[in-house]
Fold this protein.
Amino acid sequence: MSATYHVPVLFDAALEGLALQPSGTYVDCTFGGGGHSRGILDRLGPEGRLFGFDCDPDATDNVPEDHRFRLIPENFRFASNFLRIQGVKQVDGILADLGVSSHQFDAQERGFSTRGDGDLDMRMDPRIPEGADALLRRMGTGELTQLLRRFGELPQPHKAARAIEKALADNESAQLSTGWLHKVLTPLAPPNKRNQYLAQAFQALRIAVNDELGALADLLRASLKLLHPGGRLVIISYHSLEDRMVKRFMRAGNLEGEIHKDFHGRALVPFDKVTGKPIVADAEEMVHNPRSRSARLRIAARNTLAA
């Protein structure tokens, strides 16, 4: 494994949040470069087990030679099904470090980064039939406006959608690349926030291509049955859309954040929050790992109440 494939964010806090038991069974939903997984394995005993999920084929190069570990090359939204195939019904902890890995950002041909010029692809799983280029060609202005507003929280998203539509109409045979999108959108960006504007637009397309929020919702719902009582749910998110979803779910056990009550008015919440406010990186980590600046870590423990 390349040492620079991916630098784990909030490494110590995330592993402490799992409250690892030497003989426990754990899931690393975003294996990537294997940094968090190696940390978990270092803390497990000979009877412990760790399952990693990653749909990016590049991640297979980083699998440790350890009989306690198994990589499942699928999206973590299907964790429950694939764990059942392995004979595992419940686990002691689930860790997910959401978003894009350092390796994916650095591989310009993948299309995740606003830097350089590569294919406008953005698929984490190459088996997904439609990349960002095909998505832009298919969508109308209204649908694209909604996408940019919802997933990128882009200011005046209709202007960006119209600019993309016009650029496609002017040159229907254009090779859609990250450089092409950069050129189309840069004139619309506020002068002092150009990088942020482009990052928000790229984020919106990436989330849509990979159905990232849908996958996170599936994982959160599955955690209700996957986690043993006392099992830990540890999620690192990088933008408000993810963090808001995680916060609501840990608070109430549903995606709406609505706390249900029993006949006597007692709250039926399936998780006990381990963290109140999210854990964030300290100044030193932000300097050495800039990706950590936007990271938010939330931790909850499954209790015995019905969801």
About this structure: The CA atoms of residues 55 and 73 lie 5 Å apart. The chain has two domains: 11-102+212-302, 110-210. The longest helix spans residues 194-210.
